[in-house]
């Protein structure tokens, strides 16, 4: 009996400590890049630079009210006649409202997923069986950046969009303060990946990003991001990058490489 309880404990422990959980679902496709870049996350044309144009829309459980924007996934279709065993790495940039599939994939992702010459055959199927897993986003030599949106009006209103978020987490909160000050003001998620506040500190600005980490949250402190004369439409380097891995609950875990 003691051995059984120990084995059960190991199973439950494994089920709550996975960096990679493989999920079974379906995917559909679009051929227009604009159909995804103009989507709910608000990335616009900047989405093309997030993952070489390998973009996707995800259902509500993946979109997470906008917190899932920018997340990276490895997806492969399950028919070896049409698809490679490695699949495609994609970045989530839009909300998929069609619950028949977990993902809507852009055509560049489809090209990566397919054997040579098979992409159009897969597209004609309309919906295909897939398996997928969350993977860390990697931006070589690129820090987390903050774009000041055009609707911002210094010094009364600030709207920002984080770009190039690494790791395998979600940004679930952002605070802003003047550089050198401990008087933090919380920002609100306006929509998708876009955050705003009408309580804008004066001077140069620092940010604290709250990200999921393991099963808890973690602060990522960017000590000097926006200059005092920040301008709408500009992108500013935060000086930091997010590398944390948030875990999922599943059994068994996936430890292999596709």
TrEMBL record:
It is found in: Secreted. GO terms for cellular component: extracellular region; plant-type cell wall; plasmodesma. One of its GO terms (biological process) is anatomical structure morphogenesis. Residues 1-17 form the signal peptide. InterPro entries: Expan_Lol_pI, Expansin/allergen_DPBB_dom, Expansin_CBD, Expansin_CBD_sf, LolPI, RlpA-like_sf. Residues 38-142 form the Expansin-like EG45 domain. The keyword Transmembrane helix does not apply. Keywords: Secreted, Signal. It comes from the Eukaryota. Residues 156-238 form the Expansin-like CBD domain. Belongs to the expansin family. This is EXPANSIN L1, expansin-like A1. It comes from Hibiscus trionum (Flower of an hour). The lineage of its organism: Eukaryota, Viridiplantae, Streptophyta, Embryophyta, Tracheophyta.
């Amino acid at each position: 009996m003691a051995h059984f309880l120990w084995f059960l404990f190991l199973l439950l422990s494994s089920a709550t400590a996975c960096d990679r959980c493989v999920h079974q679902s379906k995917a559909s496709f679009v051929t227009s890049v604009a159909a995804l870049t103009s989507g709910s996350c608000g990335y616009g044309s900047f989405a093309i630079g997030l993952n070489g144009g390998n973009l996707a829309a995800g259902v509500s459980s993946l979109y997470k009210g906008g917190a899932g924007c920018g997340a990276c996934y490895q997806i492969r279709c399950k028919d070896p006649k049409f698809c490679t065993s490695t699949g495609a790495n994609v970045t989530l940039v839009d909300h998929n409202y069609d619950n028949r599939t977990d993902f809507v994939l852009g055509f560049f992702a489809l090209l990566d997923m397919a054997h040579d010459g098979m992409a159009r055959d897969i597209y004609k199927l309309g919906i295909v069986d897939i398996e997928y897993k969350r993977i860390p986003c990697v931006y070589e030599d690129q820090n987390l950046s903050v774009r000041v949106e055009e609707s911002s009006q210094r010094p009364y209103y600030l709207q920002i969009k984080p770009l190039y978020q690494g790791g395998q987490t979600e940004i679930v909160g952002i605070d802003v303060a003047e550089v050198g000050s401990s008087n933090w003001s919380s920002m609100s998620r306006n929509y998708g990946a876009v955050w705003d506040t009408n309580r804008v500190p004066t001077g140069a600005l620092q940010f604290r990003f709250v990200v999921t980490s393991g099963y808890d949250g973690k602060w990522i402190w960017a000590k000097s991001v926006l200059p005092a004369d920040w301008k709408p439409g500009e992108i500013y380097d935060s000086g930091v990058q997010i590398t944390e891995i948030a875990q999922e609950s599943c059994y068994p875990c996936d430890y292999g490489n596709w």
